[in-house]
## 1
Amino acid sequence: MTRIRDPVEARDEEERDLYEVADWERRSVLDWIAVVLHGTLISGARLFLVLLAVLILASQIAFGALVSEAVAVFTLLSVAPALALAAYLWQADVTTNEPLDLLAATFVLGLLFAGFAGVLNTGTDLALRSVGLTTGIVGFFVQIVVFFVVVGPVEESVKLLAVRLYAFRSRDFDAVIDGAVYGAVAGLGFATIENATFIAGQTQGVSDPLNLVATGGAITAVRALAGPGHVIYSAFAGYYLGLAKFNPDRAGPIVVKGLLIAALIHAVYNSLAGIVPAVVATVSGVPWFVAFFGFVVVYDGVFGLILLRKLSRYRRAYNETHDDPDEGPVAELTEFET
């Protein structure tokens, strides 16, 4: 953010000592204590968030039977498409490939912070059930409102927090496009624990191996289609977080814009996913899963293409401003840049 200077400092020609008049620096013991205490409080707040997220995850594991070989296998299969998409965005970074340790940390934070969204979403659902607003036509429209007011904004915010808390502060986060990469990885972490929760809920209590494979395979297929959406939504928000890092004087509105875009796309998906496939299946007679598959491919394909075009615009600008052969090889254009 652009620094506003006091009138005294603005007219001073560095002839006066303006310490605690119009300027400040660490001089006294109390100054150093204030700096250390401030840093400790900030670090403590970050640590508190992580520990709270760990506790929420631990409770999910304890009461939701998330830890089992079957759930682990089905979860790995369910996140394969999302992983492939996140890996593509990482590889397509025209600047430098982001370090694996930062990517791993962002993935873990995305996985952990999903618990915050789970608590808020569950609390909202329980509150609505307690007043009878989850059934009938009224419940249908209330649920749509919840998608736009609670689910979309909350889930995209916690995924962006996973990037902001650690990777954003790293010196390796040195380009706008890095935000999209880390956002995608945070979305992958979120999708992983969300898929595990759904799969565990559907397979809990199923002991027969054949029934377990059938039940687990069905929910895994559905969740495999839902995962890439999380990567796309949070890549949008992450891109704008990257833009905000290099435009600190407008950082707030830029971050808000990215969150609005991600939350809106997310909420529209949630709203249509329960309607469009059912209507298409009823009208056309095709199986519901086929209709759902077609809906996801079209919906995610449209917004995935928009995301890739946005990244391609950055890629083109990068190539045009790095055409000096002494600065290294220029990245090749892709089909989205024609």
Note: The chain has eleven helices and no strands.
## 2
Amino acid sequence: MSGVTGGRWQADVYAAVAARPNASTADLAARLGRPEAELRPLLDQLRARGLAVESQVVPGGWRAVHPSLTIGQDLATRERDLQDHLAGLAALRHDLRELTQLYSEATPDVDPDAVVPLPDRDAVLMRIDQLVADARVEVASFVSSKPSVRAITESRPLDELLAQRGVAMRTIGLEAFVRDPAMARALRESAAMGVRTRLAPTLPTRMLVVDGREAVVANNAVEPGRGAIHVRNPAVVALLVDLFERYWATATPFGEPVASPHLDSPLTPTELAVLRLLALGHKDEAVARATGQSVRTVRRIVAGTCEKVGAKGRFDLALRAAANGWLGDCRPRP
């Protein structure tokens, strides 16, 4: 009776009903030495389980039902369901082995030192699926352009699979992402699944590194549709891992306020990133793509930055930034 609410008293009530067929609630209460008001809920629970029914002979009386007709049937049904479930798991396991073998046979072997071109998005996604399916330790990625809602939705099962297998996940995205409500929500959902995310003003490329041994690098940082390359050469992958770790060390954890990398600079990391790209001669459109923002937002950032430091224009802004050491090795171009 451990599955019935009421514990030991519930079993005692059932025993009393079985011992005194057609006894009323009052008679049962007297036999058990309990108030009738306390007994009624226990009798109702027995009736809900099908273990007791109202007497058809004595009004207000009760009659016990053999447990094999209720619990026994429930147990048999659950055992059949369990057997069906186990059979389904066995079928899934067989399909997994068979289809995995077929997938592997259809996928050509990759020379460890080769750089394999992935010409389009479908080829990229198929290769990523294969790598993620084999991941055992960690998946690390640069996300240098805002993914579509469809891409976020399609990647969720992969993230869930990795989380279930205990594979660590680290992602570095653009600071501009948090200003988009849909992206901010997606980042929060990923964080809830165990994905550790940090943000940077800019990223050099779009990249995925699996277990520190294989990598997929986009041909274009902001246009994933242009394809990618699959790299397995240990020396090249080691360089990509080092690149990721350097960005990870300075990126801001998602959810924390962004601090300026230059304590003596009044500019935010995004403002500094925009300024450096402009100083290198990049047009507004290229700066927008590199920072994950619209061209209009880039121009608004430039105007605000000029006002903040008292610059008369873009070139004057770049000169002031260079004089204060905010551009690093960049030099403003006329």
Note: Confidence is low (pLDDT under 50) at residues 1-6.
## 3
Amino acid sequence: MTNAKQIEKMLRSHAEGDDEQFFSIALQVAAAEARQGRRDTANSLRAAVDAARAKDGVRPSIPIAFASPRGDLEGLLDLKQPSITLADVILPSASLDRLNHLMLQQRKRDQLREHGKLPSNRYLFVGPPGSGKTMTAEAVAGELKLPLFVIRLDTLITRFMGETAAKLRLVFDEILRRRAVYLFDEFDAVGGHRAASNDVAEMRRVLNSFLQFMEEKTATDSAIIAATNHPELLDKALLRRFDEVLEFSLPTPDQIRAVIKYNLRPIKYPRIKWKAVEEAAEGLSQAEIARAASEAVKTAILAQRSSITTQGLTEKLVDRQSMRSAFTTAS
């Protein structure tokens, strides 16, 4: 039967408006009932939780206000309420299948725990700039109906000895306490390998701290996503800390077409010559292609045209190619 401690925790989480914690405790009770052989009671409790969550819809179940005394934690995390799901992300089918499997583990995490297993919750995204890593992190949060917290590396990393590791501890305390999706973008700034010639003792300590924090088990099963454009810079010890590594690459012709169609809305494109468009977009990232399509739409709107032409679209793609060439030459 439910003990007084669990009832007390449920009442406290209800008073604090922390619905996810309330549901998590209820599911722990269901798991305990199942272990005692009372399957009907366990199934009834799970069904009640699922119904309550469905009634809440997409409303965030996690309170987003920071309850200091956590010092400057608010400056370490940028909150983003996700507006997309995996249905809005254009990725290879194999990558989407892997992501959907990870999301299933998150949704069924209490069932996994009943059998002594933990859901995968530590993901490494690697790939060139603009290939969709940050967008996919937002989609993961949207898929799980959780807030997305982006760790601000400009605030996290300081030149004072011990301060960066202490701030990192604050971030992981929040990960342990509050269920959400946490994104470490440009992760190589933290996870650079310890033997790097330009490394300093302080950053080695920071990496060692990160490795230790990643080993900590959490009842919240918060999703930790690290994204990097430079996987070759990462310390090899990080590999076993992540449950899944997803590679992002430049879009294929089919993906180029899908990205453009998604970003041309609401303007029509009745007679687009896709072969010419795909050739013009070759070598560009998803983000660059999306911006080119968006610029073509804005040009059409300002010219009071109701549709996009092949020339209008390819011109914007060529502009993006020129921008890339200018940037490469300047560097």
Note: Residues 57-70 have pLDDT under 50 and may be disordered.
